[in-house]
Design brief:
It contains five helices and ten strands; from the N terminus they run αβββαβββααββββα. The longest helix is centred in the last third of the chain and has 22 residues. By secondary structure, the protein is an alpha+beta fold. The chain has a five-stranded antiparallel beta sheet. It has a three-stranded antiparallel beta sheet with strand order 6-8-9. It has a two-stranded antiparallel ribbon with strand order 7-10. This is Protein kinase domain-containing protein. It comes from Paragonimus westermani. Keywords: ATP-binding, Nucleotide-binding.
């Protein structure tokens, strides 16, 4: 601002009142607040993508529930596509996508679309592409050796931010490990793989979920280390 002002308090009105009278360095004085357009929530069915618009390129990895492929969407956008394996539960795979549809946070891998039709074809979960892959592989690579302690601490903070958001949404991941944390081209990390995630509805269900967290996630991962 061009002028110095003394404020009685830091309340919103005290800070904005001078700008209602004169521009004081702004292009014009303040009048009315900017209107916010209401955007209705996007329904899950609107995430259905034409299967022909997805062209798979190469396999990036695989797990017990599916394979992840690098793909092109509409021959223009690089995406990651998680494909359901034949022996896995189709309904459970779609439920993973439904849960991701409810999550919107910078530290959660973003769902872009799904392919659930026709029923005799594999289900696709289409997400943003995280170029550096799984954190567990990235940390073992030569590329990660230039990272400093502060960079690693920042990664931990990003993961904590994503997990804190899940808690706010009454959700538990149940399989948090370095293999399910993805790294993008700028070394930012995001939580992924919600195949075992669950929404908690009440305290009783929360207690049961805590048992499943140990049996399905942490114990299995610890045994493999």
């Amino acid at each position: 601002m061009a002028m110095k002002n003394e404020f009685v308090s830091i309340g919103r009105f005290d800070l904005l009142y001078p700008l209602l009278q004169t521009a004081e360095g702004l292009c014009c004085r303040l009048t009315d607040p900017c209107p916010r357009d209401y955007r209705p929530p996007v329904q899950f069915r609107e995430f259905e993508v034409n299967r022909d618009s997805i062209r798979t390129i190469s396999r990036l990895g695989h797990g017990s529930f599916g394979e992840v492929w690098l793909a092109k969407w509409n021959n223009s956008v690089d995406v990651a596509v998680k494909m359901r394996l034949d022996h896995t539960d189709r309904t459970r795979f779609i439920e993973e996508a439904r849960l991701m549809h409810q999550l919107h946070h910078p530290r959660i891998v973003q769902l872009l679309g799904v392919c659930t039709q026709p029923d005799d074809q594999p289900v696709y979960i289409i997400t943003e592409l995280m170029e550096k892959g799984a954190l567990v592989d990235f940390l073992r690579s030569d590329e990660s050796q230039h990272l400093k302690l502060n960079d690693l601490i920042d990664m931990m903070a990003q993961i904590s931010s994503g997990m804190s958001y899940l808690e706010e949404k009454n959700s538990v991941h149940r399989d948090l490990r370095a293999a399910n944390i993805l790294v993008d081209a700028h070394y930012s990390v995001k939580v992924s793989d919600f195949g075992l995630a669950k929404i908690i509805n009440d305290d009783t269900q929360a207690d049961r979920s805590r048992v499943r967290i140990l049996s399905r996630g942490l114990v299995t991962y610890t045994a493999s280390c």
